[in-house]
């Protein structure tokens, strides 16, 4: 045992690696031991592992498993000559018991050094991999190049010398010595020992060739071992002759498609794939392997570069439809504005020829806003998985393609990654393919990102990253195969970094030599990947030159035939529209009182037995029960009843957003938490009916952009679902503005896709400061497409069908209930924007009777005055039109001033599309009154600029005057006193009947 102590002492003084490597972790005898037994087994464990354990045990006996603690204690016992001590001593001396202590120490240290060297390649080998097809750049921006991994290699790809072996305490003379391999490597194949020269050669082949693998940051040993096996096993990266011929044929299609477009329409922007033609066979390999594993539907998102090629050769859109988009004489589509050809998507179901299985491929349409489509794809994928009952993502998956600069620069990428493993948002693994041009438009990577690789953002979710030289098609195919297998095995994200180049500029009209002269001088010399690979296969005898030329010719003939079809007939390149509904009517949104009462009673109870709820929640539930008994509802209960009634009809309801389960204002409580049992919760709404649809309510990550995009994608999958996203405060929709502007507002016009997503935006001026007051209604109204100068012919349903979205600000729980139900009962889908209240959630006056919600009732686009003023309209001196919460403040002030007979207050509940017909009726009803528009928002915000021209269209001879806050830059004051002063000022103005006398419009 004294010899063991001397070895340990030598290791303590000479091996700094050991000290850093051991730390304070507890060693498990089952790790690195092939036996897997719980008892110590020296024969089953590597020598370095035993040394490491013994050294750790000497520092603190608790560092090792209790079985090893007992073993080392016995071996150290005074006078003990146990067999175990001899075996341990022999193992530590590296099969040389007769050697001197110094020689034994050298053997152990050399083995440890070799193990450290192996680990260095696994961790940092990607930094010296030959990834750049141009051979002029490194794929990463890391200023530190691991010189300890640089070796000299002869023409036979064998390690000739390693001058820097000294970094590990090894010498060149050690190259031909054999060393025991650790169990954390597969480079030996069936061999347990290898000469150092061969060890380095195999590590170079695995980690420093045309593939660089980042995975050692993953904190799961099983996953790391899986990846090691896929890249270290000798001879594993091989393909059959058939697979090589398939790859060549796919490269032909990818390359020749771009060549044809470049020749035929040389002056057209097409954002071609030249320089990364391998993307097409790469995607097809991923799809083939996924289909083989049982995937039936693949949903894809991508930027503009290469989209036409993906449509043609992956999704298999008819070539004549693609060529049609280049025809300048093509007429516009019947509906909407349309979009440029490299933004459009497609849905196609076909047979996968490699697996003979049906597969559905969807490429999502998206705007130029890079990466904005990422969460949308994830949401649609999640929805398809949900509706298919695919709880593990075995049948539906997503593939996201990215540009290198956008992947590193766009924050929505990070937001999307952080949704990847959240229970209500996970799609059970996405394959990310980064087309790494090594440039962003004209910006050098050194000016575009701070991280070494553009893919480093993926490390936050422990996604393995496979860097690969795009000019080595077989290496690309292999990493794509492994990525598909990883996703199928572990249901986690994975990233493929295709390091390539752009043969032309940002687009075909761009001149890249202005900004990247050296790079593009090299690119002009660069041989096309198709030629290089064809020459390789011809030299290997896999194909003949004649066979290659026939393959090229066949695809050329296909293009020629497709081009002839364009001259005969041309088709618009859009998703098929849903078509005009057969009926432009909407049934009553009211409910039978028994249904109202039943849902209200469930909302007031806890369906599970022995479930301890918070005392404060008990009071809330009792309050709900009291309301049901009195046939009234507040805002939260009305929402509950609306959702519950749709579930009864088989409509899936999904509510997502920050803190939506309880509600930001502690009003909703759709998820009850047991106060005594951790993680036990109850969703009463899923206990309403037998065979009801599922209610999904999920607190989201603290994200607006990513989560709203996700919910938009979810809503795309089925029209028979009510999908709602709630902003914590309405102001927060600002950070999701890209999704609102590009997808929700304009999506139908650009891509002819209807979507029924609902945005719930808490809005109202309550003195809570500029960031918790306004949901910016002026922005939504400005983007509404209804014409202010045209009086519509048809109203209600037809008017809703003609608009791009619906904007409402309900002032009663009943109207909120009706508009939610109307959203599903309409014969079509439109986005619905609801400015929801804050203070009205508990305002006693903001209650609705069952009578306003029973069968025969419906959503009220306006709520006329129902008081004394409406009895004698000819005597009314002023009509105040308003919307939302301000009504209650106006009504309170009118009552205080005793002006109920002189002033009528009309509530505009549906703001867009504007209810011209109902407003006209109110104006004519109060023919002797002056008209006022009163809002609590500032004059340059809110609704005034929207409603004013429309009132002129209704009645041009009767002007409408503005009452509210003065124009301002901030949406609200941050001072409570100032807020109250502003409120008093505009209320005084609203009821000052003398203020407008003698004024002309």
UniProtKB/TrEMBL annotation:
This is 2-oxoglutarate dehydrogenase-like, mitochondrial. The gene is ogdhl. Pfam families: 2-oxogl_dehyd_N (PF16078), E1_dh (PF00676), OxoGdeHyase_C (PF16870), Transket_pyr (PF02779). It is found in: Mitochondrion matrix. Belongs to the alpha-ketoglutarate dehydrogenase family. Its EC number is 1.2.4.2. It comes from Sinocyclocheilus grahami. Its main location: mitochondrion. Its cofactor is Mg(2+); thiamine diphosphate. GO terms for biological process: glycolytic process; tricarboxylic acid cycle. GO terms for molecular function: metal ion binding; oxoglutarate dehydrogenase (succinyl-transferring) activity; thiamine pyrophosphate binding. Keywords: Calcium, Glycolysis, Magnesium, Metal-binding, Mitochondrion, Oxidoreductase, Thiamine pyrophosphate, Transit peptide. Signal peptide: none annotated. One of its GO terms (cellular component) is oxoglutarate dehydrogenase complex. InterPro entries: 2-oxogl_dehyd_N, 2oxoglutarate_DH_E1, DH_E1, KGD_C_sf, ODO-1/KGD_C, THDP-binding, Transketolase-like_Pyr-bd. 2-oxoglutarate dehydrogenase (E1-like) component of the 2-oxoglutarate dehydrogenase multienzyme complex (OGDHC) which mediates the decarboxylation of alpha-ketoglutarate in the tricarboxylic acid cycle. The OGDHC complex catalyzes the overall conversion of 2-oxoglutarate to succinyl-CoA and CO(2) while reducing NAD(+) to NADH. The OGDHC complex is mainly active in the mitochondrion. Involved in the inhibition of cell proliferation and in apoptosis. Residues 633-843 form the Transketolase-like pyrimidine-binding domain.
């Amino acid at each position: 045992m004294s010899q063991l102590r001397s070895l340990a002492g030598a290791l303590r003084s000479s091996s700094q690696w050991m000290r850093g490597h051991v730390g304070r972790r507890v060693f498990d005898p089952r790790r690195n031991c092939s036996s897997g037994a719980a008892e110590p087994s020296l024969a089953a464990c590597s020598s370095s592992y035993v040394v490491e354990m013994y050294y750790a045990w000497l520092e603190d006996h608790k560092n090792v498993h209790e079985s090893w603690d007992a073993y080392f204690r016995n071996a150290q016992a005074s006078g003990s000559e146990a067999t175990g001590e001899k075996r341990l001593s022999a193992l530590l001396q590296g099969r040389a018991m007769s050697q001197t202590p110094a020689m034994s120490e050298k053997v152990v240290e050399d083995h440890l050094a070799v193990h450290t060297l192996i680990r260095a390649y696994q961790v940092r080998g990607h930094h010296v991999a030959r990834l750049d097809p141009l051979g002029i750049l490194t794929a990463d921006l890391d200023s530190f190049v691991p010189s300890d991994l640089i070796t000299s290699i002869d023409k036979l790809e064998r390690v000739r010398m390693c001058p820097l072996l000294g970094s590990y305490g090894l010498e060149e003379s050690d190259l031909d010595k054999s060393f025991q391999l650790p169990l954390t490597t597969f480079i030996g194949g069936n061999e347990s020992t290898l000469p150092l020269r061969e060890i380095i050669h195999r590590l170079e082949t695995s980690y420093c060739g045309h593939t660089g693998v980042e995975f050692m940051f993953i904190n799961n040993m099983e996953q790391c071992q899986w990846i090691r096996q896929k890249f270290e096993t000798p001879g594993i990266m091989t393909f059959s002759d058939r697979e090589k011929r398939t790859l060549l044929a796919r490269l032909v299609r990818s390359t020749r498609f771009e060549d044809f477009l470049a020749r035929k329409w040389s002056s057209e922007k097409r954002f071609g794939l030249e320089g990364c033609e391998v993307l097409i066979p790469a995607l097809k390999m991923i799809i083939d392997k996924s289909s083989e594993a049982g995937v039936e539907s693949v949903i894809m998102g991508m930027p503009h570069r290469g989209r036409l090629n993906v449509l043609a050769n992956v999704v298999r859109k008819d070539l004549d439809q693609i060529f049609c988009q280049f025809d300048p004489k093509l007429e516009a589509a019947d509906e909407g504005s349309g979009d440029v050809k490299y933004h459009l998507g497609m849905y196609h179901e076909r047979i996968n020829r490699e697996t003979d299985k049906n597969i559905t491929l969807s490429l999502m349409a998206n705007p130029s806003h890079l990466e904005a489509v990422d969460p949308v794809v994830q949401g649609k994928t999640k929805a398809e998985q949900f509706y298919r009952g695919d709880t593990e993502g075995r049948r539906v998956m997503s593939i996201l393609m990215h540009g290198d600069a956008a992947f590193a620069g766009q924050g929505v990428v990070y937001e999307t990654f952080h949704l990847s493993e959240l229970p209500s948002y996970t799609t059970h693994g996405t394959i990310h393919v980064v087309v790494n041009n090594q440039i962003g438009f004209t910006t050098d990577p050194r000016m575009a990102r701070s991280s070494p690789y553009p893919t480093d953002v993926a490390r936050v979710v422990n996604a393995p990253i496979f860097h690969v030289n795009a000019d080595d098609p077989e290496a690309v195919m292999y990493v794509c195969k492994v990525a598909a297998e990883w996703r199928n095995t572990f249901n986690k994200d994975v990233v493929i970094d295709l390091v390539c180049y752009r043969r032309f500029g940002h687009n075909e009209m761009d001149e890249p030599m202005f900004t990247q002269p050296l790079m593009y001088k090299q690119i002009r010399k660069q041989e096309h990947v198709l030629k290089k690979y064809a020459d390789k296969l011809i030299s290997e005898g896999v194909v003949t030159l004649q066979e290659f030329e026939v393959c090229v010719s066949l695809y050329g003939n296909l293009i020629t035939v497709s081009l002839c079809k364009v001259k005969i007939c041309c088709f618009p390149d859009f998703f098929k529209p849903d078509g005009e509904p057969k009926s432009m009517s909407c049934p009553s949104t009211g409910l039978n009182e028994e249904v109202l009462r039943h849902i209200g009673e469930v909302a007031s109870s806890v369906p599970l037995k022995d479930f301890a709820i918070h005392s404060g929640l008990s009071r809330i539930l009792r309050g709900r029960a009291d309301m049901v008994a009195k046939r009234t509802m507040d805002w939260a209960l009305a929402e509950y009843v609306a959702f519950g009634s749709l579930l009864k009809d088989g409509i899936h309801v999904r509510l997502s957003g920050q803190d939506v389960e309880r509600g930001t204002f502690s009003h909703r409580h759709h998820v009850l938490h047991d106060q005594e049992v951790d993680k036990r919760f109850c969703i009463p709404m899923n206990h309403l009916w037998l065979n009801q649809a599922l209610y999904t309510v999920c607190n989201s990550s603290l994200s607006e952009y990513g989560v709203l995009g996700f919910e938009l994608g979810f809503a795309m999958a089925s029209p028979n679902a009510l999908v709602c996203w709630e902003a914590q405060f309405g102001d927060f929709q600002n950070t999701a503005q890209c999704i609102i502007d590009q997808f929700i507002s304009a999506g139908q016009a650009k891509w002819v896709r209807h979507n029924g997503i609902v945005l719930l935006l808490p809005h109202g001026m309550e003195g809570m400061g500029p960031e918790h007051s306004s949901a910016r209604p002026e922005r939504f109204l400005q983007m509404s497409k209804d014409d202010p100068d045209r009086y519509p012919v048809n109203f209600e349903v037809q008017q809703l069908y003609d608009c791009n979205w619906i904007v409402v600000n309900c002032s009663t729980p009943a109207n909120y209930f009706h508009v939610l139900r109307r959203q599903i009962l309409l014969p079509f889908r439109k986005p619905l924007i609801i400015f929801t209240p804050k203070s009205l959630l508990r305002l006693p006056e903001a209650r609705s009777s069952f009578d306003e919600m029973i069968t025969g009732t419906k959503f009220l686009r306006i709520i006329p005055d129902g008081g004394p003023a409406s009895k004698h309209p000819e005597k009314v001196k002023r009509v105040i039109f308003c919307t939302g919460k301000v009504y209650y403040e106006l009504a309170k002030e009118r009552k205080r001033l005793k002006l109920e007979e002189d002033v009528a207050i009309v509530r505009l509940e549906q703001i867009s599309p504007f209810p011209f017909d109902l407003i006209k009726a109110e104006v004519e009803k109060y023919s002797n009154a002056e008209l006022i528009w009163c809002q609590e928002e500032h004059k340059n915000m809110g609704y005034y600029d929207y409603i004013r021209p429309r009132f002129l269209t209704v009645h041009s001879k009767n002007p409408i005057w503005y009452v509210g806050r003065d124009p301002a830059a901030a949406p609200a004051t941050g001072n409570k006193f100032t807020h109250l002063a502003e409120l008093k000022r505009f209320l005084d103005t609203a009821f000052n009947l003398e203020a407008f006398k003698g004024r002309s419009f």
